[in-house]
Amino acid sequence: MITLLPARLKLLHFPRSHLAHVTHAIVKTCVFEDTRAPDYFFSFTENAYEVSIVASESTIDHDFLPFLTGTEDSGTSSDIYRVLQVDDEGGQDASGKRISDLSEPLAQSKFSIFYMSTYQTDFVLIKERRLRQAMQTLLDHGFQIDEDSLSLVDSLLFPTASHTSSAASSTIHANLSSESLVSTDTGSTQPEHGDPEEEEDDEGSGGVDIESSVLPNELRCAGLNPHCRSSWAMTVLKILSYPELIQQDPTSHRFFSYTATNEGISLIADEVMLELFEEQALFQDEDSVPLRVIQVNLAGSNLDRCGIVRSISQPLAAEAHINLLYLSTFKTANILVSADDIERAEEILTPDLEKMRDMLSQVVLEPLQ
Fold first, then answer.
1. pLDDT band at residue 201, thresholds of 50, 70 and 90?
2. Is the pLDDT of residue 91 over 60?
3. Mean pLDDT score, 108-124
4. pLDDT of residue 195
């Protein structure tokens, strides 16, 4: 089942060296905001290449950006993103197939997506101006979408329309025809890219460097017990904002991801970090396996590029039957597979990364409408 969440989000990235600049914003967002509000959403991911933040539009614009003004190698999305929550009975054991199945029709229809696997569920971020088209695509390919979400997207993008009855909401699928799709785009474009249509004309011949690295650390995906917040809140803040207090080698690269909504909190971290938490504070599956992460630097922002999630998940999950978790960040793709599968996954992805380099060289961009 796919559910549209009420959160309206923006994306932000900056180098790890700038982490101290936004400590106040992180503390405010994690501790002092109402984490039980229906529209609460905050995600922090740090890898070898960047720190990537996903948060509400107001949080990014008012709490983070003022402290990053003028800093190099940082940026934010000009688009607003909406969140589709993907719940599946298969859970993490079927996450690879789920990622592949969801990303394929969206890639074929030229949607750029931002995918986030977490302990509780999966999230697919879609640009708000193309939300209605994306939901139609998923409906057309047999995915179940919560009926209230269908009504919600219609009322959000067309606030004068009234869809209060169940009979009205049941007809939305039929009404989402290509002729009736209306864009809410205000004409803004990514500052990192300029106008996508212009880019297709003048950048198609340029080469694109794609760098990948495999972290030696073994990682786990776990949940945080919200009833034990007082016992783990300070630990989370240290990990997010003061890594030098807990990291033995501050010069080494780490991978850490924290995603919180009003329904749950997810961590992806190595064993050293997880040992900082009390046992009762963590939710962990007894049969969970250690994970390794392949980090792929996509040579700049990937927010407008279509087919990246599919080009990675399809050969692993659909063809080689390797299960995976996937985390998009502003500039990178992070593929998490069982430690036992890491060598095979690397072998499979190597030629596909070459194909992706060719794809990015041709500037496969999401259309404005």
1. very low
2. yes
3. 96
4. 36
| 313: alpha, beta or left? (left if phi > 0; alpha if psi -120 to 50) | alpha
Domain ranges for the chain: 1-155+207-364
Cα–Cα distance, 276 to 257 (Å, whole number): 15
Fold assignment, 1-155+207-364: VC0802-like (3.30.2130)
To the nearest whole percent, how much of the chain has pLDDT over 70? Answer: 81
pLDDT digits (tens, 9 = 90+) for 80-90: 999 999 998 88
Q: Tell me, what's the pLDDT at 158?
A: 59
Q: Report the 3 state secondary structure along the chain.
A: CEEEEEEEEEEEEECHHHHHHHHHHHHHHHHHCCCCCCCCEEEEEECCCCEEEEEEHHHHHHHHHHHCCCCCCCEECCCCEEEEEECCCCHHHHHHHHHHHHHHHHHHCCCCCEEEECCCCEEEEEEHHHHHHHHHHHHHCCCCECHHHHHHHHHHHCCCCCCCCHHHHHCHHHHCCHHHCCCCCCCCCCCCCCCHHHHHHHCCCCCCCCEEEECCCCEEEEEECHHHHHHHHHHHHHHHHCHHHCCCCCCCCCCEEEEEECCEEEEEEEHHHHCCCCHHHEECCCCCCCEEEEEEECCCCCCCECCHHHHHHHHHHHHCCCCCEEEECCCEEEEEEEHHHHHHHHHHHHHHHHHHHHHHHCCCECCCC
Q: Which residue has the higher pLDDT, 169 or 152?
A: 152
C-alpha 344/C-alpha 16 separation (Å) is: 30
Q: Cβ contacts of residue 132 below 8 Å, gap of 6+? A: 153, 154, 157, 176, 181, 182
Q: Which residues contact 300 (CB under 8 A, 6 or more apart)?
A: 192, 331
pTM: 0.86
